[in-house]
Predict the structure of protein-tyrosine-phosphatase.
Amino acid sequence: MVAIEHSAVCRQEKREKLLKEKGEEWAGMPRAIEALAPPSAHSGPAASEILQWSPGASASASSSEEQTAHKPPAYTPEARSASATLYLGSSSAAKDSTWLFNAKIGFVLNCADDVKAPSELYDHLGVQWTQLSALKDVTSCDISPYFDSCIKTIGEKLSQGVSVLVHCAAGMSRSASIVIGFLISPEGRQMSLVDAVHHVRERRPLVYPNKGFFLALIRLEGTLWPDRPQSILPEMIELHEDCTLLE
């Protein structure tokens, strides 16, 4: 049985390992979860940290070679506008005017109440944005109340052909949990939680939702899909102190 322990120590160790292997610029920037646009369209300095996901194409896994080359991997949900792209990243991309313009971002979802939104920049670029309040990256914080509204908003924007950036401070836990929640939802890709976690981490390896957020995702999957076997049981989190599930 595969298990996971999303402790802060484990996540920090994995992040430091990535920094050493790939370099600080690679590990610190966001990556796109879904996008149909070619890599050349995302040539801004923040492109290497974007996890990209676009409505329409197949959800093929990106290779490590693609990530090393800073090519934003593509993922597209079904029955959505081919012009819209969902990105997962850190606050660096959210403040990068060149990247925001080149990626044609029309909506930014800031999942970190401790990261100030560059409202003047967004006004200048014509970018709509919203910021979640009181969402801390701690295991005691309940992320569940945010799922419904965030999933609905992301789905609506993509359906309207609006490209979306979801970010927090590092693009590692809060924003990643929201994006994973979207991927398992009816509005998203209807993935199992296991598949969604693997899918996101294949594109952005530093993604590690904290333990509390991960438990919330387990409950969300059970609520959204009560008639299908749950892909991860809550007790599996307690079995080991490593992160083998996310390898």
Remarks:
- The beta strands are 31-34, 51-53, 86-89, 105-110, 128-131, 163-167.
